[in-house]
Amino acid sequence: MGDGDLSTNCVITQNKKDRARLHLVISGRVQGVGFRFSAYDEAKDLAVAGWVRNLGSGQVEIVAEGTQANLQMLAAWAHLGPPSAHVTTVREEWLDFVGEFTEFRIR
């Protein structure tokens, strides 16, 4: 194995370590205000994969995977939401990257 192979393996390992999974539950006036569609646009812009859905409780749930930096930006966005939303709380749960998703969807 040459030096090139070793450095390539290090880069791949670093990329995996940089990835994470984020579970968000957003409360407030977050349904009927375009939250899911705005979250979809934000996730696509940030190149994260996963899904967003309305919950029966009136909350919105997001599960996303991507780089930690991009997921942090998604979480920061979720605290504000689209202009017509009024977010009161965001529950964040950071998890290990699974690699379950290939795209972001609205459920």
Architecture overview:
The protein is an alpha+beta fold and 107 residues long. It contains 3 helices and 5 strands. It has helices at residues 3-18, 35-45, 68-78; strands spanning 19-29, 49-54, 60-67, 86-96, 104-106. A 5-stranded mixed β-sheet has the order 4-1-3-2-5. Strand 2 (49-54) and strand 3 form a beta hairpin. The longest helix has 16 residues, at 3-18.
Q: Given the helix and strand composition, which structural class is it?
A: alpha+beta
| Tally of DSSP β-strands | 5
H/E series, N to C? Answer: HEHEEHEE
From the alpha carbons, calculate the radius of gyration and give it in angstroms.
Answer: 16 Å
Give unreliable regions as ranges. Answer: 1-14
- Termini separation: 46 Å
Strand content: 35-45%
What is the helix content?
Answer: 25-40%
* Strand adjacency order, main sheet: 4-1-3-2-5
User: Main β-sheet: number of strands, strand sense, barrel status?
Assistant: 5 strands, mixed
Shape: globular
Q: Tally the helices: what do you get?
A: 3
Average pLDDT value? 90
